[in-house]
Amino acid sequence: QVQLVESGGGLVQAGGSLRLSCAASGRTFSSYAMGWFRQAPGKEREFVAAIRWSGGSTNYADSVKGRFTISRDNAKNTVYLQMNSLKPEDTAVYYCGADTTTPYASGVLWTSPYEYDYWGQGTQVTVSS
After folding, report:
1. How far, CA to CA in Å, does 112 sit from each of 46, 48, 55, 116?
2. Distance between CA atoms of 113 and 128, rounded to whole angstroms?
3. For the chain: N or C, fewer Cβ within 10 A?
4. How many alpha carbons fall within 13 Å on the CB side of residue 96?
């Protein structure tokens, strides 16, 4: 079992920054990949970024490349999403997910939410224009 708790969301003006955190507990954090997703009202959950257990490999959605950075601190069992140059279209509930089943050797960082088997409760990010 893995428990995930997101924090750091809030209201920010366009062009501003936020850093989201996702604290994990219940299983060896360093053994699985982590991802950030977001879901706006009336839309499906969409991929934002993912990171492998070592932090050495990352993947980003085209819409956030160059603006968002995913990182992890395995000593603190926490994954972060630094969001800069925020836009109104970034407004959504942001969720972190854990992929505890894909073997590390595969090298895969999934972009589909169906490949992640644990989720946090989400944190709201609102960007005003």
Report:
1. 8, 10, 19, 8
2. 27
3. N
4. 31
* CB-based contact 100:90 (threshold 8 Å): no
Q: Sign of torsion, CA 82 4 45 8?
A: negative
- 38 contacts 93 by C-beta, under 8 angstroms: yes
Cα four-point dihedral sign 60, 63, 65, 69: negative
Q: Which residues is 127 bridged to in the sheet?
A: 12
Mean pLDDT in consecutive groups of 10 residues from the start of the chain, 129 residues: 94 98 83 92 96 84 98 91 98 96 83 95 97
